[in-house]
Amino acid sequence: MDASREPSGSSAAGGEGRTAPPLRWSVVVFWLGLVTVVLAVIGVFLDRETRLAPFLVVLPALIAGRGSVRQTAVASAWVTVMIAGALFDTAEDTIGAATATVVFAVVFNGLSVARAAQRVHSEREIARLRSAAAALQRQLLRPFPLMTDQLIVHGLYQPVEEDSRVGGDVYEVVASPYGSRVFIADVQGKGLPAISAAFSVLSAFREAAIAEPTLTAVVDALEDAVLRHNSFAAQAGESERFVTALVLGIGSDTEVQAINCGHVPPLMLHGDRDGPVLNGEPCVPLGLDALSPEPRTVEWFSFPRGSTLLLCTDGVTEARDPSGTFYRLEERAAAWGDVRPGDLPATVHRDLRRHAAGTQGDDTALMVLRRRPAGEVD
Question: How far apart are CA 219 and CA 209, in angstroms?
Answer without folding.
Answer: 9
